[in-house]
């Protein structure tokens, strides 16, 4: 089973009182994702950097996502409830 670890930064923007997902960006390392989340923290209502391991054949998530960095407002339950 081919496995890949993904490093993702999810941006959140305010639309009125609601938080909505912005862009999701992929990075090659945890350090790159954390650095981008820190830079984005001043531009967006919220941002979270996560890592997740997936089976590349099935797309199945093999482990619960892990938060690497979180800044500002992020919806509750964004990771694992």
UniProtKB/TrEMBL annotation:
Protein name: DUF2188 domain-containing protein
Taxonomic source organism: Aureimonas populi
Top-level taxonomy: Bacteria, Pseudomonadati, Pseudomonadota, Alphaproteobacteria, Hyphomicrobiales
